[in-house]
């Protein structure tokens, strides 16, 4: 390998390694914060914690092998593990997207129907939705992929070499999997966040009609923050996943003519979404930031020593803090 190629491979390896490290560490901090601090344990944060587990697993068991494939340009781990890796990839990324739609659904009820929120989002219903977020991705990934149903009838000339681990899918699987894994959750998120924004705007107008100028300015500030925050959430989600799922659903209909480099680039865009989720759903929240500062300040080490790993009684150290509300 020429020195220039070696430098290029090394730089790609460093960049992708940093992405993996951010994904694992960021999501692990979210899991740790919710597990330890009682005030963070809410219906919304149950989804956030499960989302962080899915994204952390993406960083641990999916991205490292994809990095080797991307940097080396070939698959070094055998045909069987290629299928296992592809199944894990589809399952965990789909689970991550499902959790994002559940968070949007939860926030819709909290903001638009606050009087029935605790009835609609009971512990049992939250647990059921989390099970769905894991079960449906499991069904559309391991079953079809391990049995080879995802590529039944694919006639690509020339066929990719066995050491490439190229994830080819037939038209039926491409359409159905893309609809279930991305387009339906995207529809849920768009509808929920649009209704949340409209509700926030309506509340701001009601406040401004009955209050003085200062309260009117505060209401307008909240409305602008709502629009900005919801726009960031949806913008990041669409920016990092829409290109991949657009190519995924189109490629079988254009005789698999999409270049491998394009596939790899769009796939890593999707992976980056898993590294950004802790910031969007955790780090930007004041309550989480307090918990993170305590963890990073090693206060948690003292807690573990004093309480001898009392997992069954969550430790209360923060002042009373509410769950995630994106525009407050």
UniProtKB/TrEMBL annotation:
What is the designated name of this protein? G-protein coupled receptors family 1 profile domain-containing protein
What keywords is this UniProt entry annotated with? Cell membrane, Disulfide bond, G-protein coupled receptor, Glycoprotein, Membrane, Receptor, Transducer, Transmembrane, Transmembrane helix
Determine if Transmembrane is one of this entry's keywords. Answer: yes
As for membrane topology, the entry says:
Multi-pass membrane protein
Which GO BP terms, alphabetically?
Answer: adenylate cyclase-activating adrenergic receptor signaling pathway; positive regulation of MAPK cascade
A single Pfam family it belongs to is: 7tm_1
Compartmental location:
Cell membrane
Query: What terms describe the molecular function in GO for this protein?
Result: G protein-coupled receptor activity
Q: Does the keyword field hold Acetylation?
A: no
Give the record's GO CC terms. plasma membrane
From what organism does this protein derive?
Oncorhynchus mykiss (Rainbow trout)
Tell me which residues make up the G-protein coupled receptors family 1 profile domain.
Answer: 26-281
Q: Where are the transmembrane segments?
A: 13-35, 47-67, 87-105, 126-152, 172-194, 226-245, 265-284
CDD domains tied to this protein: 7tmA_TAARs (cd15055)
Q: Which domain of life is it from?
A: Eukaryota
Q: Which family does it belong to?
A: Belongs to the G-protein coupled receptor 1 family.
């Amino acid at each position: 390998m020429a020195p220039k190629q070696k430098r290029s491979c090394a730089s790609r390896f460093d960049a992708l390694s940093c992405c993996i490290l951010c994904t694992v560490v960021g999501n692990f901090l979210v899991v740790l914060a919710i597990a330890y601090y009682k005030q963070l344990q809410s219906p919304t944060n149950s989804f956030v914690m499960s989302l962080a587990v899915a994204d952390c697993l993406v960083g641990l068991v999916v991205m490292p092998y994809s990095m080797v494939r991307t940097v080396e340009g070939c698959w070094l781990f055998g045909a069987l593990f290629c299928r296992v890796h592809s199944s894990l990839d589809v399952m965990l990324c789909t689970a991550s997207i499902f959790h994002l739609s559940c968070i949007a659904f939860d926030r819709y009820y909290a903001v638009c129907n606050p009087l029935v929120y605790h009835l609609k989002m009971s512990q049992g219903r939250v647990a059921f939705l989390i099970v769905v977020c894991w079960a449906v991705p499991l069904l559309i990934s391991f079953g079809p992929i391990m049995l080879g149903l995802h590529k039944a009838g694919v006639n690509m000339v020339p066929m990719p070499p066995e050491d490439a681990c190229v994830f080819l899918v037939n038209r039926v699987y491409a359409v159905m999997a893309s609809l279930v894994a991305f387009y339906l959750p995207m529809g849920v998120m768009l509808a929920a966040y649009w209704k949340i924004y409209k509700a926030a705007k309506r509340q701001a107008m009601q406040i401004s009609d009955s209050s003085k100028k200062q309260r009117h300015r505060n209401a307008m500030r909240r409305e602008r923050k709502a629009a900005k925050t919801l726009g960031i959430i949806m913008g990041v989600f669409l920016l990092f996943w829409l290109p991949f799922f657009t190519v995924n659903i189109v490629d079988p209909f254009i005789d698999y003519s999409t270049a491998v480099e394009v596939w790899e680039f769009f796939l890593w865009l999707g992976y980056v979404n898993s590294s950004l989720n802790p910031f969007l759903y955790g780090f930007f929240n004041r309550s989480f930031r307090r918990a993170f500062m305590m963890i990073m300040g090693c206060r948690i080490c003292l807690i573990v020593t004093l309480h001898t790993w009392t997992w069954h009684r969550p430790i209360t150290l923060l002042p009373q803090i509410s769950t995630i509300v994106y525009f407050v």
